[in-house]
Amino acid sequence: MNKAKRLEILTRLRDDNPHPTTELNFNSPFELLIAVLLSAQATDVGVNKATGPLFAAANTPQAILDLGLDKLKDYIKTIGLFNTKAENTMKTCQMLVDLHGGEVPESREALEALPGVGRKTANVVLNTAFGWPTIAVDTHIDRVSNRTKFAMGKNVVEVEQKLLKVVPAEFKVDVHHWLILHGRYTCVARKPKCGACIIEDLCEFKDKTE
Ligand code: SF4
After folding, report:
1. Of all atoms in ligand 1, which is nearest to the CA of residue 192?
2. 203 annotated ligand-binding residue
3. Entry cofactor note text (predicted)?
4. What pTM, to 2 d.p., does this model score?
């Protein structure tokens, strides 16, 4: 895909949604970190249902430590893989208290050292809580980037590197939300809604639907 098409795609996505953000509910970097940590293989709606009551009861690392593992599990038991996620959350809270004064560190290295936090989660937190121009590539972004030929890559890391290279600076902070939302609601996995897609004329996917 050429530069002019990419620019037009980004401009249309921005015009359609000038201030995109995550669909996870959060009011602090810590709440965002925990919500993202809980969101692996779960929907944002499902995570929000659990984190609403959880954060009302405990929304700092110390408060979650005080809650204890069993009560934490009770709050998040509707989310898939909740046992492992609860254990990782407790260990992460302990590290935040011990090493970072109870705050979420604004550092990729420090974030990725937390249990249950990988590159994608670190990218989301750095981008959405701290405004870094990082691009967290998930399954939606991977699919949209490859289908449209906007930024092709064999895996999420390759797509991330390609996006970082081809997306102009002014779009970098928001591009991951635009692509996720586009993949979640329009360029869906099984049967993309090409007839209702605002970038259909620019997209280079060969098997567009009506
Ligand atoms: S035209 Fe179809 S394949 Fe291309 S981005 Fe839109 S929904 Fe996806």
Report:
1. 7
2. yes
3. Binds 1 [4Fe-4S] cluster.
4. 0.88
Please report, for the domain that includes residue 162, its CATH number: 1.10.1670.10
The structure tokens listed for 196 are 């209702």
What is the whole-number distance in angstroms between the Cα of residue 192 and the centre of ligand 1?
6
Residues 34 and 111 in one domain: yes
For ligand 1, mutation pick of 16, 142, 178, 200 (most atoms within 8 Å of CB):
200
Q: From the alpha carbon of 147, which atom of ligand 1 is closest?
A: 3
141-152: b or e for each residue (b if 16 or more CB lie within 10 Å)? bbbbbbbbbbbe
Residue 93 assigned to a binding site: no
| d(C-alpha 12, C-alpha 8), whole Å | 6
Ligand 1 centroid–CA 198 distance in Å is 8
The tens place of each residue's pLDDT in the chain, 210 residues long, gives: 999 999 999 999 999 999 998 899 999 999 999 999 999 889 999 999 999 999 999 999 999 999 999 999 999 999 999 999 999 999 999 999 999 999 999 999 999 999 999 999 999 999 999 999 999 898 999 999 999 999 999 999 999 999 999 999 999 989 999 999 999 999 999 999 999 999 999 999 999 998
Residues 166, 115 share a domain:
no
Expressed as residue numbers, the domain containing 100 is: 29-128
Cβ atoms 193, 154 nearer than 8 A:
no
Residue numbers annotated as active site? 120, 138
Distance (Å) from CA 199 to ligand 1 centroid: 7
